[in-house]
TrEMBL record:
Cleavable signal peptide: 1-32
Pfam families (alphabetical): CarboxypepD_reg, Peptidase_M14
Protein name: Peptidase M14 domain-containing protein
Annotated PANTHER family: CARBOXYPEPTIDASE D, B (PTHR11532:SF57), PROTEASE M14 CARBOXYPEPTIDASE (PTHR11532)
Originating species: Tetradesmus obliquus (Green alga)
Transmembrane segments: 454-475
Keywords noted in UniProt: Membrane, Signal, Transmembrane, Transmembrane helix
The family this protein is said to belong to: Belongs to the peptidase M14 family.
Amino acid sequence: MAPNSSCCQHRMLLAVWLTLLVLHGHVLVGAAQSSSKLSDQLLKRYLSNEELVAWMDEFTHKCSHMSRKYSIGKSAGGAELWVLELSDKPGQQEAEPHFKYVGNMHGNEPSGRMLLPQFAEWVCANYKSNDDARRLVDKMHTHLLVTMNPDGFAARKRENGNNVDLNRNFPDPVELKGSAEKMKQPLPNAQPETIAMMKWTLDTPFVASANLHEGAIVANYPFDGYADHSERLTGKRHPAPDDAAFQFLAKLYAKKHSFMAKSQEFRDGITNGAQWYPVYGGMQDWNYLAGRCLAITLELSQSKWRPEGELPSLWQENREALLALPLAAGLGGISGTVVSAGDGSPLPATVMLDGIAWNTSARMPAGYFNRPAAPGSYTLRIVHPGYQPASAAVTVPEDGSGVVANFQLARAGDKNSSSIRGASSSRQGGRSSFTVTPLTKAAAERDRQQKQNMATAILGLLFCICGAMALLHVCNGQRPRQRLYNRVGHVTE
Ligand SMILES: [Zn+2]
């Protein structure tokens, strides 16, 4: 019995020891696996292009209920330009706004390629506990192009693989005399990254976007160039028709950033692009005039390529602002649908705000429109051929909840006039006021007259610009284009 009992005890001890060994091994492997997760590396170092793609795969696997990965084309060097979309119904068409963030357009300004992935991680981790994270996912579609210039990043240079500055490679509204149709055609020297960005912007109903750069701390808004194509640093503003909305969005980012609004150089931490230094062929003005998307440019670091040890503080500086901007642009303005009063079919009607010479349209298939707007009162006007026009006085509330106005347009000649169906704030508890003003005959005539006056004014303006350009040409001959430098001596935007 004794030898057998001892043998039994030995076997038991061996079994316990083996079990412990296996468990310990599991723990070790588990620890090794968790530390090799790329999401844990985002605030520690700049991931390579290959690692960024792997991170996106990791993310779309982990947060599959609110994300998808898709490509918009390839870089000059053949790298895929991957986008991460955040939404509860990614890839599906919904009556919701689309917003885009673009990082790393300049290869040597890599903060965006770290901030945007970290932003996605934050949204996924806080979806259940944070109202704003949930609104972002449930009520809109946010698209993150984490790097627009992977080749430039790999070579640690501003330009793309063909040595072209992508932020001077877009069709220019001044040279094309503001023709939206001409601006939709890429330039002869258009780079693959530019062509991909143009197609993506024209194919997706983006309402707003922001482009992340380095070299200063400021939120920059349109226009970037002057109407006479001047490259002189005059310090004069060249406001866009939506100047109030642009200033509102830029100020919001600056205010939500840890210290941008306290800038010594820029009042409120914002600047009109041309007022700072004129840029032609940039992405910002093109987005607004050709893409019908309100774009701003964010300069997030005084020095380019911040040391990796500073990545956590760069994230903390921008975390709140990165969340606030898409919500304000997408959900804080004026939105709604336009349908036919007869059969309820959606209409791609033109959507105008009185006093703002920039239109957008309701998008099919839902007839949904969305215009970012600063808090205040507006007259919204809806026009579609064959239908009676409609207008409504709307008030965009201060609390970011936006105002929703749904229109039913009566056919021209119908006894019943066009009407508004339902009007509310996009968020419960939001304050917004709303009154319907169907257009009377006199008002319609006034409307026609106003449009005629505006057309005459635009023609006059074009005439002046052409005259000024011809005069400049005669005076200066073939003036060589200057390189543009900002006050600290290097190109940022
Ligand atoms: Zn830049």
